[in-house]
Amino acid sequence: MNPVAIIIPALNEAATLGELVAETWRQGVAWVIVADNGSTDGTAGAARTAGAEVVSEPRRGYGYACAAGAARALALGAATLVFMDGDGSARPAELPRLLAPLATGTADLVLGSRVLGGAERGALAPHQRLGNALSAALMRRLYGLAVTDLGPYRAIRADLLRALDMREMTYGWPTEMTVKAARRGARVVEAPVSWANRRGGRSKVSGTLRGSVLAAVYILGVTLRYAWPKEVLSAD
Q: Would you state the torsion angle of the CA atoms of residues 8, 10, 13, 14, taken in this order, to the nearest 10 degrees?
């Protein structure tokens, strides 16, 4: 199979990264890259101890961290990039579900759906569920994508990611990836993934009112922004 790089954007996730990285290595991937987004709790050290490569991105923003990790993965020669949050909510053991459609050549971008796979009680706050449902409905309406969730656990072909010219450096990164892929005519499919309560630390999104509001604004804003482009992007 084409070499796979796992990218884990992380901000103050030292309590969870050791176990998460170890579990990820057991899936037979080529690289595990932790993008440290300015942590102050020893996140980088915990990741290195577990065998991950660490890239530093001090500019705060989920998109900045994802972009830094992706740049390193592409430089290393990864053909498939998988994005996984560092709080332990996603299960590395379910990685084959994301990779299978790429390996068989039936997808270019695979989104892990927590709606299809199920979430533990309390793992998703009510406003997160509502926001995901609204965003998914807009995706179906505006882009013709039959999706149920816009979760962060996802896998994408390297050549497609390069072509997307990602610009959203905050919470809008996953949404931008999805809508730009749709505009290019890329094959976007879902795979069921379960979602656990975070293993430690505090959520930067659902853990604060400000984080929740900002995430909702960015996600919905990006969904709408690319719906009526001035130019039509051709498919690869």
A: 80
Token duo for residue 91: 């299960």
CA 211 to CA 75: how far, in whole Å?
Answer: 32
- CATH value at residue 42: 3.90.550.10
- Give a yes or no: residue 181 inside a domain: yes
Q: 87 φ, ψ to 5°? A: -90, 0
pLDDT tens sequence for the chain (236 residues)? 589 999 999 999 999 999 999 999 999 999 999 999 999 999 999 999 999 999 999 999 999 999 999 999 999 999 999 999 999 999 999 999 999 999 999 999 999 999 999 988 888 877 778 778 888 888 899 999 989 998 899 999 999 999 999 999 988 899 999 999 999 999 999 999 999 998 765 655 544 555 556 666 777 777 877 876 544 444 34
Please give the Cα distance from 20 to 146 (Å, whole number): 30
Contact between 50 and 122 under an 8 Å Cβ cutoff? The reply is: no
pTM of the model: 0.88
- Say how many domains are in the chain: 1
Cα 112 to Cα 70, 153, 182, 233, distances in angstroms: 18, 5, 16, 25
To the nearest 10 degrees (0 to 180), the angle between helices 126-143 and 209-225 is 0
Say if 236 falls within a structural domain: no
Strand runs labelled E in 27-68: 31-36, 53-56
Judge whether 172 and 215 are in contact, CB under 8 Å. no
Neighbours of 96 (CB within 10 A): 12
Q: Residue 183: which domain range?
A: 4-225
